[in-house]
Amino acid sequence: MLASARSITAADASTQAGRWEKNRFIGVELYSKTLGLIGCGNIGSIVADRANGLKMKVITYDPYLTPERAVRLGVEKVELDDLLARADVISLHVPMTESTRNILSEAALARTKRGVIIVNVARGGLVDEQALRRLLDDGYVGAAAFDVFSVEPAHENVLFGAPRFIATPHLGASTVEAQENVARQIAE
């Protein structure tokens, strides 16, 4: 989300290539923006906590989230259509099921705000990648960052090479600390 909002990867590549293009990489601030979480379970609630720390307004679509837990997390529980219309950033945190497949379909993406940032670090197949590519190409979607893809390993993908698109190879739990925690949990 942070890298997308500030074009960090493109600015890094440009600068390391010897160009000094400060004016090319005008980003957006996340302060006071609305983060829409699709899914507010374990990971989604951690993202909500971090976003609250950035002074973002956090709304979430999660049919399983109780109103009491939403209050404790400091999020507003909304319906999906409301989230699509209001969110400046949409971050997905749901499993891949028949009900979540293409939850961000072409029709759903068309109901988002112009300039929205889409982040998918949950599961491939939650977003219509073809539709997202068209919306990135025409500038309707402001940026997108994916750590997961509909086909993995993703040696090629329709999103690769799109403007303002960041791709990583499913690195979600690829930290020293995460691996130590997993090992500890298994041992326990």
In short:
With 188 residues, the chain is α/β, with parallel strands linked by helices. The protein has helices spanning 2-6, 8-16, 42-53, 67-73, 80-86, 106-110, 129-137, 176-187; strands at 34-38, 57-61, 76-77, 89-92, 117-120, 143-146, 165-167.
Identify the notable features of this structure and list them briefly.
single chain; 188 residues; alpha/beta; seven-stranded parallel β-sheet; 8 helices; 14% strand; globular
Q: Would you kindly provide a written description of the structure presented here, covering whatever features stand out?
A:
Helix content is 35%, strand content 14%. It has a 7-stranded parallel beta sheet with strand order 3-2-1-4-5-6-7, sandwiched between helices. The model has no long low-confidence stretch (mean pLDDT 96). The protein has 8 helices and 7 strands; from the N terminus they run ααβαβαβαβαβαββα. With 188 residues, it is α/β, with parallel strands linked by helices.
